[in-house]
Amino acid sequence: MGILQRLRESLQKTQARLRDQLILLFTGRLIDEAFWDQLVELLIAADIHYELAEAMTRETRRRAERALIREPPQVLPVLVDVLTERLTVPAEAPTGPGPHVYFFVGVNGTGKTTTIAKMAYLLKGQGRSVLLCAADTFRAAAIDQLAIWAERLGVPVIAHQAGGDPGAVLFDALQALKARKLDVLLVDTAGRLHTKVNLMRELEKLNRIARQQVEGAPHETFLVLDATMGQNALQQARVFREATPLTGLILTKLDGTAKGGAVLSIVDQLKVPVRFLGVGEKATDLVPFSPREFAQALVGSPEEWVG
Ligand SMILES: Nc1nc2c(ncn2[C@@H]2O[C@H](COP(=O)(O)OP(=O)(O)OP(=O)(O)O)[C@@H](O)[C@H]2O)c(=O)[nH]1
Ligand SMILES: [Mg+2]
Fold first, then answer.
1. Distance in angstroms (rounded) separating the CA atoms of residues 181 and 57
2. pLDDT tens digits, residue range 196-214?
3. If exposure means fewest CB atoms within 10 Å of the residue's CB, which of 12, 75, 162, 242 is most exposed?
4. Which residue's alpha carbon is nearest to atom 25 within ligand 1?
């Protein structure tokens, strides 16, 4: 199955809230004042915050009027353009020979470990060699979970015993990365640090160790967010953004939620680019994020509406 198809399938629940409602709104009527009001309401119902829903509708209306659009279906591509622009934040994937170090941070249960497995699978598919690092040392089960994925995927993992020092595991993993001349180190971190100060200290320490061992590291710090939390994920995201520089967001569990619209709110508020989406629990269930494809999948296309 193609990536677009997978994205669309994972967005089914969100589409039921947005695309299907848009079809109703856009069919058999004229564009009047009420039409625009209802568009705002639909966007809000899809977990987009009020100010953004209003602003996007205003912009869509302005462009539609300038283009002398009279039929509701013609508004659709305009809306897709506006959504796409709102979802677009410039991002730079690391270039150069490497090795590269990617940190995965986020509250517990959001999908960090699973996302690392998926990322390992993706990178392997691109012909890059991968090493995993179990720097979430809080629970033995967390370490086991990563080790099980490593075995399943056929990639090496560096782990210490539970309760150990995350910095020490990271240090060992960085040494192994260099000694074995591997391409990418994926670092699993703990989400359950009770206060922001703890979180900051811990991440600062890991950042320092990485920086000292590998030039430019960490090259990526991905904040993993659970999309089923909708806009509630924002508060968590703010805490992490203050604790450490973030290079991208990964939104997981998009397959299980009708709140896919919240992605727009999250990007709008954080100005951090979404880089990947988690669309299931398997190793293959990570798709690179494309603003236009996502916007298009959210609202559908006129061809889908016929009949
Ligand atoms: N449906 C669905 N489930 C997911 C996705 N990503 C992760 N999960 C599930 O969410 C649960 C938590 O995922 P983990 O990867 O263990 O989360 P974590 O952030 O590592 O959690 P801690 O180690 O406790 O901090 C698991 O049951 C995963 O299978 C996704 O994209 N879709
Ligand atoms: Mg984990």
1. 51
2. 888 889 999 999 999 999 9
3. 242
4. 108
